[in-house]
Every structure is written in structure tokens, then in C-alpha cells.
Amino acid sequence: MAWGRELGVKWFTSAFGLPTSYRKPRNFSFVKILLIHIYLITYSLISFAQTQVSFYTDFEGGNLGEITKVGEYHWRCAVAGESDSDNRNRQASWYYFSVEGVKNQPIAIELTELLGEYNYKPGAHAITSETRPVISYNQDEWRHLTDEEVSWNDEATELILTFTPQENIVWIAHQIPYTTNDLNDLLANYQDHSFLSKKSIGLTSEKKNIWQLTITNPKVSTNQKKVVWLMARQHAWESGTSWVVEGAIRYLLDSATKNGLLDEIIFQVIPMADPDGVDRGGVRFNAFGHDLNRNWDLVIPEEMPEIQAQKVAIAEQADQIDLFVTLHNTERADYIQGPDLPVGKQFYQTMLRQTSFESDEGVRKMPESTTIGKVGRMTVNQALWDEYQIPAYLMELKVEKVNKLNGQRLIPEWLALGRGLVKSASEAVK
What we know:
Blueprint: H1 2-15, H2 30-50, E1 54-56, E2 67-71, E3 74-78, E4 96-100, E5 107-112, E6 116-118, E7 121-124, E8 134-136, E9 142-144, E10 150-153, E11 158-163, E12 169-173, H3 180-189, E13 196-203, E14 209-215, E15 226-231, H4 239-259, H5 261-264, E16 265-270, H6 275-280, H7 305-315, E17 323-330, E18 335-338, H8 342-354, E19 364-365, H9 380-388, E20 392-398, H10 411-429
Parallel strand pairs: 3-5, 15-16, 15-17, 17-20, 18-19
Antiparallel strand pairs: 1-4, 2-3, 4-12, 5-11, 6-7, 8-9, 8-12, 10-11, 13-14, 14-16, 18-20
């Protein structure tokens, strides 16, 4: 028994870093020694647990691939990405995860497996040397990592994050997340507003509602009103577009009700075209692997209920629409693409003059399809122009540095862009 107790002391002290030369005083009873051992074990386990580092994605929009530990505070984290129904066009442009147990510890995270394919052209990668991920300690206030906290491995096509979290838990994302709960909270704030109506135009692949918002003064006849359509989040990762739409909605319902704008214009808004993808932290494909900003020329209702519902809703007003804008995020360039029409040129010029939108190329010429010679590759603006002659435009907004701002857009800048979007669209259709 004495040998067993002595071996136990040595095992516990060795396991938890205590001096192995420890010996019990002769007048200590076995019970007292046992209590000391229990205290030491408990204290050591608590200390050990407090220093454990854990990664989590168990929240709306969370996503990350395989995690490989390199050192005590150094990991290689694969970006999961998504491919389409042909197992092609892999895109790795979304990650959103939390790390716990890292307060005041310099950490290094290498984001890997970034290479993919775009429009059947291999070698594309949305994450670049200029990508600056965002971090938060509460999921409400976000900042971009600085140039000093980010580096790029060109040979391996990997982004390396090195920074020291100020709190025990830090959330990291490609850009500031915007979830379906954020949208629900926004709409709940305005649920009693007389200028706003909401209806479901259909269900997604996973049976979620696709909302269409109508914003106008209901007391003024619609006969002479202009009609502007806005669409966001055809691609789940493009959360910046949701902040823009929130800015637009807030401006319309807080300010435009007072200046007569909604006496003259009806705004139709699809604020979240792919709520399924947003929920699961997806990239650009629905549950059947279809890109929701392709396939507009070859809709399979059973596999593309999102496109089917949206196209039917738009087609019902096809001859009334004065301007249609689908909002997207890209990495490196702001631009507008669409038909060569005065309304598009006016929209472009006003955005350029009044907002952080920056471009020097004018309205980009719109090709007939993203992949010439292959059916099912038209975007929403290409198909709406081709089938209905709707003045439909794609607006891309970059997530990298904006020269006008001397930095990347954060929530205030995205919201301001939404206000400017409404004003620019209104001037264009007038």
C-alpha cells in the first residue's frame, strides 16, 4: 500500500509538472495525502482546461475546413469551399469561425486550399494577397486585420494571419457576416411601418421563405410611379451586399418617407436570395449545387426553386421595371455591368459622384453569357435583358481596399453605400 501511494504521488506530480522529489511527512495520514492529491489534480485540470484552444463553427454562417496544429498557437486551416453540381467551379471565398483560449497569446493561422475555378477556368482564387479578414470579440463590432497582421505565401497560395487577440474568444471571417437573423431583426424593427409590405414569393431548396419587400407610399397611386428592383445575396458569401441593402431599407423607411421619394418610386427588394447558403456558411451554390446567379436561361424548378420563384416574381412586372440592380461582392474592383442604356450610365455616374463606389471604366459591356456556347450560364441581368428587355445591371463591390476611403469598407461604409444606391437609382429613373 505504501508503494502504491508513493507511485501515485510520483505519477500525479510528473503528469502535472510538480516536483517528483515530493515526499509526505511521516505524521500525515493517508486521507490527508489523498485530499492534497485531489486538490492538486483538480487545480491542474482547471489550469490545463483554461489554456486549451478550441475552434468553433457551430453558429449561423460558420464554416471552416480541416484544422492542423503546427505549434502551440499555430494552425493551418483549410477553407472548405464549395463546388457545383458538375463538381466544377470550386470557390473558397468564405470562412467564419471562432477561436477560444487565446487571450494575449500571439497566434498564427495559415488559410490554405484557396485555389479553385471560375467559369470553368482553373486556377482562380478569391482570397488574395490584398485580402484583410475581419475579427471581432462580440460578433457586433468588427475590424480588419492590418497589413502587419497579414502576409501572403505566393508560392503556396496561402494567407497567413498573425495577431494577438485581446480577449479569450475571437471570431474571424472573410468579411463582416450578415445572417438571416440580422435580416429578421431589421424587418422586425419596421414591421408596423405603413410604407413596407413583405411577402414570400416561394421556398428555397431547404424550405425557407424567399422574401420580397415592397417599399412605397401606399396612399399614392402606382400608375405613374417608377419601379426599381434591388437584389442581394444570390451568393451566400457576399455579406457586404446585405449591409448595403440594410442601408437602403433604413434610408427609405427613415428618411425617404419624409422627402416624397416614395410618392414617386416603388422599390421592390429581394434582400436575401439564398438564405439556405447564408445559414450554412455557403459560398455560391444551392443545396443541389446550382449557382444562383447562373442558370437563369435554363431553370430547373425542382432543383432551382430559388431562381424559379425570383424569376416569376420579376417577370410579373417585366414591362414596368425602370431599373434592376443585383448586388454582388468581388475582391478587387467596383464595377457596373449591363446594357448600354442612358439609365445605366446615369446610375453609374451618380454612384461614382456621390458614394464610395470607385471605377474609371464606365458601364462594362455585358456579354451574352458567362460561358459562351454552354446553356445554363446566364446571370440574372443577362437573362432579364435577353428575355424581357429589362434594364438590368450587375453591380460588384469590392471587399479589398477602397482608395476613396483609404481602407476597406466596414459596416458604416456599407450602410452609407446603401443610402447612396437609393439616391443614385432614384436620379437615374427620374
